Amino acid sequence: MATYAIGDLQGCLDPLKSLLDQIQYDPSVDQLWFVGDLVNRGPQSLDALRFVRDLGEKAITVLGNHDLFLLACAFTDRPTKPGDTFDEILAAPDRDELLDWLRHRPLIHHDATLGWTLVHAGIPPDWDLATALDQGKRAQKALRQADPYPFFAAMFGENPPHWDEKLSKSLKLRYTINGLTRMRYCTADGQMNLKEKRPAAEVGDELIPWFALPQRRSRNERIVFGHWSALGEARDRNKTWCIDQGCLWGRQLTALKLDTRPASVFQVDCPCYRQLLSQDA
After folding, report:
1. Which CATH number fits the domain that encloses residue 167?
2. Lowest mean pLDDT: which of 16-25, 238-247, 264-273?
3. Are 124 and 211 in contact (CB under 8 A)?
4. Number of domains making up the chain
5. Residue 132, Cα to own-chain centre: how many angstroms?
6. Residues 12, 247: contact at Cβ < 8 Å?
7. Mean pLDDT over residues 227-252, rounded?
8. What does the pLDDT look like over 102-154, one tens digit per residue?
9. Backbone angles phi, psi at 260, to 5 degrees
10. What is the residue range of 110's domain?
């Protein structure tokens, strides 16, 4: 039995199938962890969503920011953006079943036996693991309500940049969503900066990757995440592994075998970006 974490798919199903062949994935004994962003920008968003859904209990998927944006477009009047590849999902005959499955995915997953935590973007530096799991469950409950509109009403916005127990319920919800699905950089005092996306070498000293903050309360936890294709090589950074290696942008789709020491990296090239370029030509 093996457990593999898989990087951001973003609608690239063929590379996933190639990667599963490479790791000799056995659905009878192996488990897959997906770091979120199953959909959007790639050419196979609908097929990728169906494929992962059909894996059933053999796969654990946390929600990414693109997954949440799909749900917001489906459940509110928020329009899609140029370059989004949601239309096929929103028009699919099994749309309702797929969207219901997606909004019942967690925002964070922890396996105490395996000793790993799965999240799309990261854990805010002023949260320990217990707080992250608790606030994640609270957000999940809001998303899973019969009327999820309050969740989406709170979802959009960059404030508050730091955590405070005195925050209103809606601002706590927004902070949770931003921290778990959008965060990359923080200031030295731990405030989230959600605008900056460039590699650290281009940013300077004013912003620090969330996982590099010395006061980070989850620093003793092993965390696997995605969301940050500009970060570079998939490697151990303070017990955290980013496995978004830019599959969509013509680089690699990555799997990380979690039950080996050290964790093992597997990668396949992804042709999706070239396919999109040829479609636009």
Report:
1. 3.60.21.10
2. 264-273
3. no
4. 1
5. 15
6. yes
7. 92
8. 999 999 999 999 999 999 999 999 999 999 999 999 999 999 999 999 999 99
9. -120, 155
10. 3-280
What integer is the mean pLDDT of 212-224?
97
Tokens 């959909």 sit at which residue? 39
* Residue 278 confidence (pLDDT) above 70: no
Q: Which two tokens stand for residue 43?
A: 């050419």
Residue 66: name the closest of 50, 51, 83 by CA. 83
0.85 surpassed by pTM? yes
Cβ–Cβ contacts within 10 Å for residue 37, how many?
31
Rounded CA-CA distance 199/178 in Å is 19
> What is the DSSP track for the chain?
--EEEE---SS-HHHHHHHHHHTT--TTT-EEEE-S--SSSSTTHHHHHHHHHHTGGGEEE---HHHHHHHHHHHSSPPP-TT---HHHHT-TTHHHHHHHHHTS-SEEEETTTTEEEESS---TT--HHHHHHHHHHHHHHHTSSS-HHHHHHHS----SS--TTS-HHHHHHHHHHHHHT--EE-TTS-EE-S--S-HHHH-SS-EEGGG-TT-TTTTS-EEE-S-GGG-S--EETTEEE----GGGTSEEEEEETTSSSPEEEEEE--HHHHHHHHH-
Question: 41 to each of 32, 67, 81, how far by Cα in Å?
Answer: 22, 11, 10
The token duo for 5 is 């974490």
